[in-house]
Amino acid sequence: MREPDSEVIQRVLKGETGAFDVLVQQYQQEIYRLAYRMTRNAEDAQDLAQEAFVQAYRSLGSFRGLSRFSTWLYRIAMNLCLNHLKSTARQDPSEVDGNLADQRADSLATLLAGERDRALAEGIEALPPQQKATLTLRVHQGLSHREIAGILDCSEGTAKANYFHAVRALQRKLQAFQKVS
Amino acid sequence: MNDCETIRDQLVAHHEGELGEGERRLVEAHLSACPDCVRDAGLIREALARVETLPVPEPPVGSWQAFEVAVRRRIAGEAPPRPGLWGRLIAPLHGLFLLRPVPALAAATALGLLLAVGLVRTQRSPRDVPPAEVLVFNEDLAIGQNLEVLESLDFLEDIEVLERLDVLQKLDGGRRPRLS
Q1: Could you name the CATH architecture of A1-91?
Q2: From CA B153, how far away is CA B8, in angstroms rounded?
Q3: Do residues B162 and B89 share a domain?
Q4: Any idea what DSSP says for residue B92?
Q5: Which residues of B touch A25 (CB under 8 A)?
Q6: CB contact under 8 A, B12 and A72
């Protein structure tokens, strides 16, 4: 059975710094995926995920343990991703995830499905960062609007509105794709 | 704004189960007679399902080990983390709350009930200040007594406590929530 995060954290705080490896092993893939979904760049995602763990280590003493450690870690990672998006020029949507269609293109149906995925990936890339973050935390991490509001430092109403706008934008993207194809 | 526009603005909330009973019925009545809005609702479902399954490229084999090594190397140069004020306050209770959550929860519930009964019986004056260890141990009760203020806080760490309070408030017929 996996050792509870709270116990691992206590071990780290008592000076057993090597125990932090347990948290890294537990969450590295999740944090990498979250960062990838925000940046659509594997290398940036690895760097951001690494930085998230280093920052988490530095701030571990301030973690109060009233929320899940993973939620606290998402907040650190998401702040890093949002800062990264601010500091880098937006990618040309036409260049985003060009391999998405290829990954599933073993028949006409899957080719079309791949094209729809690509249209959606472009739609996600075009979302404002806060909407993209909200969508990722809701769809992939399964967080509540209240948890998302806590992570993104906004009201619950704003988190909901961002999510609704993001989904509507993607729905319109699919609609436009249907008309074209 | 015509009916369809109004309904389309509510389709995501409908999909999420966020609408009240009245709004939900209105949306569903409209959907039963409007193929265009049914199509939009279908696209919302499809968009969310596809977003969920969009692939994330896995790093090459061995990358995760390299990742761990890189993190380990970077934190080796850092000062070891030390518990903050909060950590130091709860440290004596750690064995009770964190290592044995079930008995701890039962103990916290029992203490909370005792305190609640004590408060009612003694009709404590507002100037009475409970001992510091009770304040820490019984933090959730204090949260319940000041729910309005706390609901406006956006501290991440309070979120799960507040969510539990919402549930407890419902279970308790809308009365002041208690730790359980």
Answers
A1: Orthogonal Bundle (1.10)
A2: 32
A3: yes
A4: G
A5: 64, 68
A6: no
pLDDT digits (tens), chain A, 181 positions: 788 999 999 999 998 989 999 999 999 999 999 999 999 999 999 999 999 999 999 999 988 887 899 999 999 999 999 999 998 865 544 455 555 545 545 677 777 778 888 889 999 999 999 999 999 999 999 999 999 999 999 999 999 999 999 999 999 999 888 777 6
Query: What CATH number does domain A99-181 carry, 1.25.40.10, 1.10.10.10, 3.40.920.10, 1.10.10.60?
Result: 1.10.10.10
Question: In this predicted complex, what is the ipTM?
Answer: 0.81
Tell me if B62 is assigned to some domain.
no
Question: Who among B12, B56, B159 is closest to A167 (CB)?
Answer: B12
Tell me the residue range of the domain where B47 lies.
Answer: 3-53
Q: What is the tens place of the pLDDT at every residue in B97-140?
A: 544 555 556 666 777 777 776 665 555 444 444 444 444 444 44
Q: How far is A44 from chain B (nearest CA, A)?
A: 12
- Candidates A21, A168, A178: best to mutate against B (most CBs of B within 10 A) is A168
Q: What HEC string does A52-119 produce?
A: HHHHHHHHHHHCCCCCCHHHHHHHHHHHHHHHHHHHCCCCCHHHCCCCHHHHCCCCHHHHHHHHHHHH
- List chain B residues with CB under 8 Å of A53: 71, 75
Task: Single out the residue of A129, A96, A131, A101 nearest to residue A114, CA to CA.
Answer: A101
Distance from CA of A160 to the nearest CA of B (A): 9
